[in-house]
Amino acid sequence: MRLLHTSDWHLGRAFHRVNMLGAQAEFIGRLVTTVREREVDAVVVSGDVYDRAVPPLAAVELFDDALHRLADLGVPTVMISGNHDSARRLGVGAGLIDRAGIHLRTEPAVCGTPVVLADAFGDVAFYGLPYLEPALVKDEFGVEKAGHEAVLAAAMERVRADLAARARGTRSVVLAHAFVTGGEASDSERDITVGGVAAVPAGVFEGVDYTALGHLHGCQTITDRVRYSGSPLAYSFSEADHRKSMWLVDLDAEGAVTAERIDCPAPRALARIRGPLEELLADPALARHEDAWVEATLTDAVRPADPMARLTERFPHTLSLVFDPDRAPDDPDVSYARRLAGRSDQQIAEDFVAHVRGAGPDEDEQGVLRDAFDGVRADAVVREVAR
């Protein structure tokens, strides 16, 4: 069986001030063409279809168009909700459109009930594990402490139990939206840390033939059977070096996996340039970036006059301007933002405690801080889902 694995469409998202809807529509066109020309048997979409719980109308219309085009091809599609989606909104009408071969899996309670498709070698069971927010699903899965590994492990127990009851030789595919250990993050993913831990081990998915992951925006292979497709478009300059693609996956009669990357169309190249303004404007080596979307980091000791206007004369598609003067880390003039760069909320809070009382928090106090941050994040998720 041939699968096309994609995820993290983030329909409705902009790139800085650039509306990406046209580029997203072009990607949908490439996906449909690939399904038709490469004789794909099933499409799997591993979450974050939309960029937010209540997407703009134009994004909903593009999603509707994608569903109609896939249904017209007669190729089944299995799709889960991600942490950016409202599972309840995305799942509206799931029972009805299921008849058209579009299988939406947004309810954690039915993660052990697969979509079963067949080829010449028998059945393939597709298990959709939507994004499992630990604070919201721990009771459903009967785990004592809310955490990503605990709820995913409990969900996979249901998957394995169902699979064990099926005919011998049934092959299996799991769709999941999670941060798996070994994956490389970028700046455009929303933080899902719980209890100071964001990642779960790949071993959680042991026992299935292929795990189609979503959440991380870089295409990457965790193991031969556990892969991220990544987002089809870049949504931050941290993705400037990404090759945006989908996985074309073949499952043979025994469940062995082979995979090929299918490139996604890029609306424009991304470039990150750094240095004093005058050097950036004069350096001939930067000519290759003149038609790219540019993030420029200026290292001038004194902020130059009209930097954006001057940059856009050479780089007309400059979208981001950052000031980072070359100074020693202990220089008192180093910006607050630079001092905090790369530090988590937990670390910043612990630094604050150390600053105001002369000693950092002990283990119990660190736990109190973690619980507080987890509570705030979980409350934000609940309020967004309820919208």
Question: Which characteristics define this entry?
Answer:
six-stranded mixed β-sheet; single chain; alpha/beta; 19 strands; 11 helices; 387 residues
Query: Using DSSP, what is the number of strands?
Result: 19
* % residues in beta strands: 15-25%
Number of helices: 11
Query: How is the main sheet built?
Result: 6 strands, mixed
Averaging pLDDT over every residue, what do you get? Answer: 90
Morphology: globular
* Amino-to-carboxy terminus distance: 39 Å
Order of helices and strands: EEEHEHEHHEEEHHEEEEEEEEEHEHEHHH
Roughly how much helix do the residues carry, as a percent range?
25-40%
Strand order of the largest sheet: 6-5-4-1-15-16
Output the structural class: alpha/beta
Computed over alpha carbons, the radius of gyration is 23 Å
As residue ranges, the low-confidence spans are: none
Q: What is shown here, in short?
A:
This protein is α/β, with parallel strands linked by helices and 387 residues long. It contains 11 helices and 19 strands.
How is this structure best described in words?
- This protein is of the alpha/beta class and about 375 residues long.
- Helices cover about 30% and strands about 25% of the residues.
- It has helices at about 20-35, 55-75, 85-90, 95, 135-140, 150-165, 275-280, 305-315, 335-340, 345-355, 365-385; strands at about 1-5, 15, 20, 40-45, 75-80, 100-105, 115-120, 120-130, 170-175, 180, 200, 210-215, 220-225, 225-230, 245-250, 255-265, 270-275, 295-300, 320-325.
- The strands form five sheets. The chain has a six-stranded mixed β-sheet.
- Helix 7 (about 275-280) links the parallel strand 17 (about 270-275) and strand 18 (about 295-300).
- Helix 1 (about 20-35) runs parallel beside helix 2, helix 5 packs across helix 6 and helix 10 (about 345-355) crosses helix 11 (about 365-385).
- The two termini are about 40 Å apart.
- The model has no long low-confidence stretch (mean pLDDT about 90).
